[in-house]
Amino acid sequence: MNVMRIILLFIVLIIGIMAQAQNKIYITANGETHTATLADNAATEALRRMLADRPVAISMQDYGGWEKVGDFPQSLPTSNSQLTARPGDIMLYQGYQMVIFYGNNSWSYTRLGKIDGATASNIKSWLGGGSVEVVLSLTASSGIEDVAVDKNTEDTVYDLHGRPVTSRPLLPGVYIINGKKTAVR
């Protein structure tokens, strides 16, 4: 009987962890990625469906000295209510604008979620002043960013640490070949 309780507890724990993981998104800006916990509403369901196809880039600008604002590629369903946003809150405004707060503001929004562990100072530092491009995704990035291609050489091969690979034939693994991540089997 005791073993059955432990198994049941383990199953409930795994289900809880999986449900929580499905309620997270990744937000990347300026080479730094943070997670956010999504609210449970029609807007976040539509956002998850949008991100299931591919990551979404949003160009954001400062507004009012307390938030960054940028347009989604398509409108999301709204369920607006009068809310007081705090640093780290992510809101939907007018159905098509994402707002990330680094200050406080009261207005009629649809809550999208909150950046995990966010403070006003770390959001300002992360997103910087002025315009910034943020990328929303359901999975963490690969860590391979901005690959430069050397146009003067053929079949330039690097390992995932950026070191040139000169031995041939290539052993099975993942390489950067002519600027593209490639799996060799």
Based on CA atoms alone, the radius of gyration comes out at 21 Å
Tell me the major beta sheet.
8 strands, antiparallel, barrel
User: Helical proportion?
Assistant: 10-25%
Instruction: Give the strand tally.
Output: 12
Residues in β-strands, percent: 35-45%
Apparent shape: extended
Mean pLDDT: 86
H and E string: HEEHEEEEEEHEEEE
Tally the helices: what do you get?
Answer: 3
Class based on secondary structure composition and strand pairing: alpha+beta
Strand order of the largest sheet: 1-2-8-6-7-4-3-9
Cα separation of the termini: 48 Å
Which ranges are low-confidence, i.e. pLDDT below 50, for 5 or more consecutive residues?
A: 17-21
Structure characteristics:
alpha+beta; 185 residues; 3 helices; 3-stranded antiparallel β-sheet; extended
Task: Note down, in words, how this protein is organized.
This protein has 185 residues and is of the alpha+beta class. It is 22% helix and 38% strand. The chain has 3 helices and 12 strands; from the N terminus they run αββαββββββαββββ. The protein has an 8-stranded antiparallel barrel with strand order 1-2-8-6-7-4-3-9. A 3-stranded antiparallel sheet has the order 10-11-12, with no helix packed on it. β3 and β4 form a beta hairpin. The longest helix is centred in the N-terminal third of the chain and has 20 residues. It is extended, with a radius of gyration of 21 Å. The termini are far apart.
Can you lay out the helices and strands and say which pair or pack?
Layout: H1 2-21, E1 24-29, E2 32-38, H2 42-53, E3 56-63, E4 67-71, E5 81-85, E6 89-93, E7 97-101, E8 105-115, H3 120-127, E9 132-137, E10 157-158, E11 173-177, E12 180-184
Antiparallel strand pairs: 1-2, 1-9, 2-8, 3-4, 3-9, 4-7, 5-8, 6-7, 6-8, 10-11, 11-12
